[in-house]
Amino acid sequence: MITLYQFPRAWHIPNPGQFCAKLETYLRMAAIEYRIVETLPVAAPLGKLPYIEHDGRKIADSRIIISYLQQRFGDRLDQTLSERQKAQALAWQRLLEEHLYWVCMYSRWQTGPENWHINKQAIFRGLPPLLTDGIASLYRLRIKSQIRGHGIGRLPAAQVFELGRQDVAALAAALTDQPYLLGDQPASVDASAYGILINLLACPVASPVKEYALAQPALTEYCRRMQLRYFPELGEPEFA
């Protein structure tokens, strides 16, 4: 059985880690059995979550993990996609994971004490109280360095949020007249879209990008559709 290592659940969504939510969603979409170990990324192979353990191997990075799962268990979601749809899926994945993700991380880790406190409580609440502040602060410095290294952390906040709004507008346009990113049936890219969007829309961290996204019915309905289909035990997501 697959062992999935990820952050503890929070906020009535699968996971406060976007890629943890993505990977667990994929496992459910592909009907692959797994068990969860809640942890922090201290011992993770690449220093990040999620990672999996299977047949004595530890595998990290959600993209590499999903490719491994497709090889071992079959490609249950994308095998009927056309080459055009596969190209579209890759483009959406890059927008979500290489850009919008970093806009969301900017909101959580680099803006305002209130946003940081909310994020810290969700991610690090399993630590002993005397260690929480120190470890969380060190991790925050690391994440802020990564955000700056990406480039988005070097921009003024207004420009960051405008770039994020453009990503959100594109996703809303794609989902206005179809239930999933590629049409009537879900594909693996929907695990990525849901993992990142649910963490934008249902995470209690405030930002102008979130305000804009909440005003897009196509996005809230998409997240509701995905959560009720693949995580019914969590109930409807709470958008606020």
TrEMBL record:
SUPFAM superfamilies: GST C-terminal domain-like, Thioredoxin-like. Residues 1-77 form the GST N-terminal domain. CDD domains: GST_C_Metaxin (cd03193), GST_N_Metaxin_like (cd03080). Pfam families: GST_C_6, GST_N_4. PROSITE patterns: GST_NTER. InterPro entries: FAX/IsoI-like (IPR026928), Glutathione-S-Trfase_C_sf (IPR036282), Glutathione_S-Trfase (IPR040079), Glutathione_S-Trfase_N (IPR004045), Metaxin_GST (IPR033468), Mito_Protein_Transport_Metaxin (IPR050931), Thioredoxin-like_fold (IPR012336), Thioredoxin-like_sf (IPR036249). Gene3D superfamilies: 1.20.1050.10, Glutaredoxin. This is Glutathione S-transferase family protein. The lineage of its organism: Bacteria, Pseudomonadati, Pseudomonadota, Gammaproteobacteria, Methylococcales.
